[in-house]
Specification:
179 residues, mainly alpha, three-stranded antiparallel β-sheet, 8 helices, 63% helix, elongated
Amino acid sequence: MDVISLLEPDPKGEFLVEPRKYFVGAMRRIVQARDAKVAAALRPMGLTVEAFRILKVGVRAGACSISNVALLASVGRHRALAEVDKLLEAGLMERRARPTNRRVIEILPTEAGRQAVQAVDRIKQQIDERVFQGLSDDALRQALRSIERVLANLEVAPAQIASQIWTSEYGAAPEGEPH
C-alpha cells in the first residue's frame, strides 16, 4: 500500500491529496529540494552549506570573531570552528588579531573566499532559474499572494518573513530583527 492512498484525496481530483494538506507538504518539499540542489553544487567546491554560510557572513560582515560568525551563520560554535579550520586550510579565510584588542582573533575572507561566494551566488541564481522555469512573473506573484494570505492567517508579520529569508540565505537575522 502506498502513502498517497492513505491520505485524504482531492475532491476535485486535480492534486494528489486534499489541497490544504498538499500545500503544506509541497512548501516543505520545495525548500528541501532547493537546499539539496545547493548542497550538491557546493560539494565539488569542497564546501558544506555551513561553510558557505560562514564564508558569506565574512563577505557581508567583514572581520568577525568566530563566536559572532557562528551566531550570524546559525551554526553551532564547535561546528563553526571545524568549518573555519577547513576554510583557513583551503585559503578561503584568514585569521588576524583584532586591531583594537590583539587578544581577540578575527576571521575574514580572502580574495579567493570572496570569489568563491560570487561563484556560489551565480550557481544559486542558476538553480533558482531552473526552479521557477515555466512560471510567468504573474503566476509567481499570484502564488506569492496566496502564500502571503496563508502567512497572514497564521499571523506572521512581513518583518518575520524578511528575517526568515535572510536566515535561509545568510544565517541568523541581523541584531534587533525578529526571528
